[in-house]
Amino acid sequence: MHSNCKIYLYSCNKKGHDSKNYLKYQRDSVNEILKYVMKKEFEISFHKSMIEKDLYGKPFLKDFPYIHYNISHCDGYIACGISNGPIGIDVENVREYPTKVLKRVFSDKEIEFVESANSKNLKFFQLWTLKESYIKAIGKGLTYPIDKVNFEILDDNEIKSNQSNSYFDQIFLEDGKFVLSVCTFRKSELSIEHWNAGGTYE
Fold first, then answer.
1. 94 near 125, Cβ under 8 Å?
2. What is the CATH number of the domain that holds 163?
3. Does the UniProt entry include the keyword NAD (predicted)?
4. Among 176, 188, 79, 173, which Cα is nearest to 132's?
5. Is 82 helix (H, G, I), strand (E, B) or coil?
6. What domain range includes position 54?
7. E strands in the chain
8. Burial grade of 7 (CB within 10 A; 0-12, 13-18, 19 or more)
9. Which of 78, 107, 123, 134 has the fewest C-beta atoms under 10 angstroms from its C-beta?
10. How far is CA 10 from the centre of its chain?
11. Nearest Cα to 57, choosing from 48, 66, 47, 70?
């Protein structure tokens, strides 16, 4: 069975914001994106008071349990994923990767994949966003051992995982400056829309 999965992306430049104001700007933008998405997709008038968190801290809409959504943001982008089944997304700006994290939560094969590459930072965040997307999809947060979630990315960018019954997509934004990974538990028909304050464009 296929799952419908739509990703709304918002390019939010940090220029002109200090760190504190930028975080507030992103939080406010997430709220506006959710208002737009819930109205467009479900004819729901969204308010942030509708959100509750489960025992693991994963947010959900208390009155609409059939709606599955996930939010991710980094310096430069906000991503909102909507699906008719559990979904996890993670977007990251490609930057110098933390070597301590590589050694602590990546398998030997994953470490070799990163360290043997010309574009080490990109390869690290390809794997990291995949791991994060899975953890967010299962909704266990930091209680789940991320080092147990392993991936192999083949030359044609096919993604293989040791997590059965999980499906992954990966998108490069702005010529590889950003990486977005998506995890669902049914094969998804993925579509992307770019959001701005005036609505969206394909």
1. yes
2. 3.90.470.20
3. no
4. 79
5. strand
6. 3-201
7. 3-11, 51-53, 59-61, 68-74, 77-83, 87-93, 151-153, 159-161, 167-173, 178-184, 188-196, 199-201
8. buried
9. 107
10. 13
11. 70
Expressed in angstroms, the distance from the first to the final Cα of the chain is: 26
Spatial CA neighbour of 182 closest among 163, 171, 169: 169
State both tokens at 114.
């990163």
- 13-27, 33-47, 87-101 — which is least confidently predicted? 13-27
Which tens digits make up the pLDDT trace of 101-131?
999 999 999 999 999 999 999 999 999 999 9
Tokens 């699906």 correspond to 83
- Where would I find the H helices in the chain? 19-42, 99-105, 108-115, 120-138
Amino acid at 49: S
Domain count, the chain: 1
